[in-house]
Design a protein that fits this description.
The complex is a heterodimer of chains A (about 375) and B (about 300).
Chain A lengths: L1 H4 L15 H34 L10 H22 L1 H31 L1 E2 L9 E2 L3 H7 L2 H15 L1 H16 L5 H13 L2 H12 L6 H8 L11 H30 L2 H9 L4 H12 L1 H15 L4 H7 L10 H12 L2 H33 L1
Antiparallel strand pairs in A: 1-2
Helix pairs in contact in A: 2-3, 3-4, 4-17, 5-17, 7-11, 8-11, 9-11, 9-15, 11-14, 11-15, 12-13, 14-17, 16-17
Chain B lengths: L1 H49 L4 H5 L14 H5 L12 H37 L9 H9 L6 H15 L5 H25 L3 H9 L4 H12 L1 H16 L3 H6 L7 H10 L5 H21 L1 H9 L5
Classes of the chains: A mainly alpha (about 375), B mainly alpha (about 300).
Chain lengths: ~375, ~300
């Protein structure tokens, strides 16, 4: 608590050329006192409620909600105290403080809490409540073929980002060419990104691809695929889910790549043309290398979102057939929905989080090397 | 003479092939553009037309209204939104409007909260030097933006447990907090980029004129970055309106959002195509309209940071 009070302390210490030095000192002392008082109040409320929940004392709140209010109050007191104690620097700290306190409460604390839950045997449907189980969850995880299957599927989905990227790059080049009705095409290409994955699941997954009457199934029959069951076999199902996800996210990549293309100076391409380069050569020798930084940003963001893929899998296939389309998220969703097993589900999620962080750190390192070599 | 004729030929020949090449190129370009536009728009066309079909039109695969089939209001009627049912009491409509309200309230609330928290933090990080323990500005920025990689599944179950204790399950405000968190990194990213493009001299001039740093922010800087704010807001709106994962886990009845309603209808087998189509069409309509009219802002929001 005192550590966050020192945020932004680097800048200006309170100015002592203030003529009203005694008043300033009183203000600083009051500010510090306010922060301390609020901190003590918050810790006291937390303590009382913890003891009450543990059954050690007879009084407390019915829910933990008042602790949330105490936290909000403490945040406000911290802000006010900062301004009083540190003047200008406190006013500056006030810009970052709300977002920092919010993230602390809503992201950092739940994540840490998640690591705690992950070590518990906790079934919400069971009466017993949580109890510590010596990391049995992680042992169980290593023997869970469905979890590793879901991780393997994630590898497939992430690799397919490269195919999405190739298509998106092509579309961005088309939009960047001199064409009529550019506005229309830009809006049309953007639309899939605006749609709710759940609605798309029905619109495409359940109706366009419906085995008997779906237009896509009819089309497939016309092309000679007599049994167009898009979700019946593992590999077709996997590719179909990937296609659905690609359909929704390619617009996003197109927009980023198009922005990159438009920021590129036209003269470079013209110069390449004058030098007698064919369009093919001009693309590979000039456009593509210049676009590399934008491409890497695009790919990274797309991979981050790909790693969250869940909605369409849950609503279209439910992970089937036989787990062939499962993503880690959709699998954990089912672990919770079917078995109410909070402890095990969280353990799986936490392990996944660690894998993601390692993977993205590796990607960032590779990306850095790539851009350094080219530019 | 022979020389000039030769010359003419040698000029005319490449000219013709050149032109042919250009024509072929045009055809290919527009062909590809039109094919992808159809890929993008056909599912929407299909959904909207299907919501006006009856069973026989679906099974026969009729596609074009009035030519192939006679549109009717059955699908919309089942939602209570057709002309003949709009003034009658309708349970599905009541439920639909409730979900719709929840979605609007939650997505707008979360986007506004994220915009407030995010733009404040972004402005601070673009203008002042902070130090928090070993963390400097870049680290604090990375701290905010790195929240983007947190998959919903990591937070979902802890939230479920915590919200149960906090009595925030199935409440709008509970979902607003979660959604704010999911879009905050994006808002910080977009807005810092926006503030960085405004010269610091402007702030300094305003400070000299006697405004406080908060006065500078609200009276001078924010109005200038209005387009950026709108872009960040709309992008947040898109992401929060469509969110399904948290909504399905953290709501039960009161705060259920539109995607959860759509998903629960999809799950039940044997539901009428036309009513499902009407429901899907109604669920996507607001954002399709936003996409058509505010495309500029979405593009601006998305492409921030991609180009340096």
């Amino acid at each position: 608590m005192t550590a966050s009070a020192s945020m932004a302390a680097a800048d200006n210490e309170p100015e002592f050329d203030n003529p009203d030095i005694v008043g300033a000192h009183a203000r600083i002392a009051a500010g510090k006192a306010l922060i301390w008082a609020a901190s003590i109040l918050f810790v006291a409320a937390l303590l009382v409620q913890t003891l009450y929940a543990a059954g050690a004392i007879g009084f407390g709140f019915a829910t933990w909600r008042p602790i949330l209010y105490a936290y909000a109050l403490w945040g406000i007191a911290l802000g006010v105290g900062q301004v009083m104690a540190r003047g200008e620097a406190g006013l500056r700290a006030l810009f970052v403080l709300p977002a920092a306190l919010f993230t602390l409460a809503v992201a950092i604390f739940p994540t840490l809490f998640g690591f705690y839950i992950a070590s518990l045997d906790w079934n919400l449907a069971a009466l017993g409540g949580p109890h510590f189980n010596d990391f049995d969850n992680f042992v169980q995880m290593f023997h869970d073929p469905y979890y590793w299957n879901a991780l393997a599927n994630m590898v497939f989905y992430v690799v397919m980002v490269l195919a999405e990227y190739a298509i998106a790059f092509g579309l961005a080049l088309l939009l960047n060419a001199e064409i009529r009705a550019r506005k229309f095409f830009r809006v049309a290409f953007l639309i899939p990104f605006m749609l709710s994955p759940v609605a798309v699941s029905w619109m495409i997954g359940k109706s366009l691809m419906e085995y008997r009457f779906g237009p896509l199934a009819r089309l497939a029959r016309d092309f000679g695929w007599q049994t167009p069951a898009f979700f019946a076999y593992p590999w077709t199902a996997r590719f179909t889910i990937e296609a659905l996800d690609a359909w929704m996210w390619i617009p996003f990549m197109v927009i980023l790549l198009l922005a990159g293309l438009q920021a590129m100076s036209k003269e470079v391409i013209e110069a390449a043309k004058v030098d007698g380069a064919s369009p093919w050569q001009a693309f590979w020798k000039v456009t593509f290398p210049l676009m590399l930084p934008v491409s890497i940003t695009t790919l990274l963001i797309r991979i981050i979102f790909k790693l969250k893929l869940a909605d369409i899998v849950i609503t279209v296939t439910g992970g089937g057939p036989g787990g062939a389309t499962d993503t880690v998220s959709s699998f954990i969703y089912r672990v919770y929905r079917d078995r109410s097993n909070v402890g095990y589900g969280t353990a799986l999620a936490m392990f996944y989080l660690i894998l993601i962080i390692l993977f993205l750190m590796l990607l960032l390192r590779i990306a850095k090397r790539f851009t350094r070599n080219v530019v | 003479m022979a020389v000039t004729a030769d010359l003419d030929d040698s000029f005319a020949q490449p000219g013709n092939t050149q032109r042919a090449k250009i024509v072929v190129g045009r055809v290919l370009v527009y062909g590809a553009l039109i094919i992808w536009a159809i890929v993008c728009l056909f599912p929407i066309y299909w959904t909207v037309t299907t919501s006006f079909k009856s069973a026989i039109d679906v099974t026969h695969g009729h596609l074009v209204p009035w030519l192939d089939f006679i549109p009717n209001w059955k699908g919309w009627g089942s939602l209570g939104l057709s002309p003949d049912t709009i003034f009658q009491i309708s349970t599905p409509r009541h439920e639909f409007i409730g979900r719709f309200e929840n979605s609007i309230f939650i997505s707008i609330g979360a986007s506004l909260l994220a915009l407030l928290l995010g733009s404040l933090a972004a402005y601070g990080l673009s203008r002042f030097q902070y130090k928090f323990g070993p963390m400097k500005n870049d680290d604090i920025l990375f701290f905010f933006i790195s929240q983007l990689i947190l998959p919903p599944v990591v937070l979902a179950l802890p939230f479920l447990v915590l919200y149960k204790e906090l009595a925030l399950l199935d409440t709008r405000i509970g979902l607003i907090f979660v959604y704010t968190l999911t879009v905050l990194p994006i808002v910080v990213w977009i807005m810092r980029d926006q503030f960085n493009t405004i010269p610091v001299e402007l702030d300094e001039a305003a400070l000299v004129d006697g405004l406080s740093i908060w006065g500078v922010f609200f009276r001078i800087i924010l109005p200038i970055t209005l387009p950026g704010l709108v872009a960040a807001f709309i992008l947040s709106l898109v992401l929060t309106w469509n969110e399904y994962f948290f909504a399905s886990l953290l709501t039960a009845s009161d705060a259920k959002t539109l995607p959860v309603m759509v998903a629960s209808q999809t799950g039940s087998q044997g539901i009428n195509w036309w009513s499902m189509a009407a429901l899907s069409a109604a669920a996507i309509a607001p954002l399709v309209i936003v996409g058509i009219f505010l495309e500029r802002y979405i593009v601006k929001g998305l492409s921030t940071g991609a180009v340096k």
